[in-house]
Known about the structure:
mainly alpha
Amino acid sequence: MLNEERIRLMTRMAAYEEHEGKKDIAISGYFRGDYISFQLLKSAIYATVGFALAVAMYVLYNIETFLEDFYKMDVVDFLKGILSKYCLVLAVYLVISYFVYNYRYNKAKRHVKQYNQLLKALMQMLNIGRKGR
C-alpha cells in the first residue's frame, strides 16, 4: 500500500534536489568565510577586467583627443586619477558583492537545513513503516 504523505514528501524533496538543491548543497559545503572570500576574489577579478575594458573603450572612443592631449598632460596625475577611480569602483563592487554572497550563503544554509529536516521526517516515516511489518 502506498503512503501518499511519503510520496508527496519524496516528490517535494526530489524537486528541490533537481533545481535549487544542487547550488545550495554546493554552497553549504563551504565554511561561510571561505565561500565569501572566494566569491569576493572572483568579484575583484571581474571588476578589474570590467574597469580595464571600460577605460580602454573610453580611450579608444576619444583616441584623437587623447593623443592630442597626451604630450600636454601629466601622465602621473592621469594614472593617479585612473587608479583612484579604479579603487572607488572596486571598493563599491566588493561591498555590494559581500552583501549579495552573504545573503546567498545564508539562504542556502536555511534551505539545506529545511531539506535535512525533511530527510529526518522521511527516515521516521520509513522506520515506522518497517516496524509495523
